[in-house]
Amino acid sequence: MEEDVKKALTTKSKRARMEQRGKFISFLCIALIVVVVVSIFYFVASKGLATFFKDKISVMNFLFGTDWNPSQLGPDGKPQVGALPMIAGSFIVTFLSAIVATPFAIGAAVFMVEISPKQGQKILQPVIELLVGIPSVVYGFIGLSVIVPAVRSVFGGTGFGILAGTFVLFVMILPTVTTMTVDALKSVPRHYREASLALGATRWQTIYKVVLRAAVPGILTAVVFGMARAFGEALAIQMVIGNAALMPTSLVTPASTLTSILTMGIGNTIMGTAENNVLWSLALILLLMSLIFNIIIRLIGKKGAFSK
Do both 21 and 167 map to the same domain? Predict the structure, then answer.
């Protein structure tokens, strides 16, 4: 009798065994994700750093040079691989699209959460979901057919450039920023609004001075997330920016981004050559920038949690 009781107490139940099995499967999935991420970083870094260790190209010349022609040798006998025009183009078009998209996203989110939640869910929500599901190549074709001719007729020139790319990316990141801003506004406790109204504040004063200020960390996270999306966009921006590896001199002259040069050149080079290695170096910059954007998002999230 005592042995049966001891055996029953020491033997794991079926539910405990299932829980242990579930933990083991979850650990394997997490380990697989970590291995994949580390492998991607290692692969891109090993290819991208070959430009500096194997081809002996100066990091300063690569980051701050303005001449981009990897197939030709410069006066120093090394390929002309100044990536500053693409880096500048990527940052300029990213910041401009975020600046344009943020007011529209905040306005749409305020309407959907504070002004007319029923109409917002019935009208705006389906429209935003539709914009999210449109492929980037469709945005590129619309930009090529509508935005580029419009910029050409208003500002002159070819129509290709940073301004056209800004309008395309603005429409592409607007759903992302709007959706995350809506979540940020909904996360503001209801008693904040009730306390403000009880103190005599108007509806707009409550929205501006209470709700939006309480949701600032979430809104900033949405903006940075949209910038990360814009910085890594390739196909749509390639179709409207002009793909000229030159330092941007105005918003209506052809320019280029890291992604546009990558998509055009990666299939036309031989693996292991200097021309191919410098493209992997551009990919490494993109990967590092995505990591920086994620770190910024986490820092903003921690700050918001701490302030609450």
Answer: no
Question: Which one-letter amino acid corresponds to residue 214?
Answer: A
For residue 60, the one-letter residue type is M
- Structural domain count of the chain: 2
CB of 92 closer than 8 Å to CB of 237: no
Residue 69 counted as domain residue: no
Structural domain containing residue 153: 84-307
Of residues 306 and 74, which shows the higher confidence score?
A: 74
CA dihedral sign, ordered 304, 100, 183, 287: negative
pTM above 0.70, yes or no: yes
**Are both 154 and 203 inside the same structural domain?**
yes
Q: Is 53 a member of any domain?
A: no
User: Within a domain: residue 290?
Assistant: yes
Q: Residue 222: is its pLDDT beyond 70? A: yes
**Which position has the token pair 């200020």?**
213
- Work out the mean pLDDT of the chain and round it to a whole number: 84
The CA distance from 44 to 241, in Å, is 26
> Percentage of residues in the chain with pLDDT exceeding 70?
91
How many angstroms separate the CA atoms of 237 and 225, rounded? 18
Stretch 63-73: mean pLDDT? 80
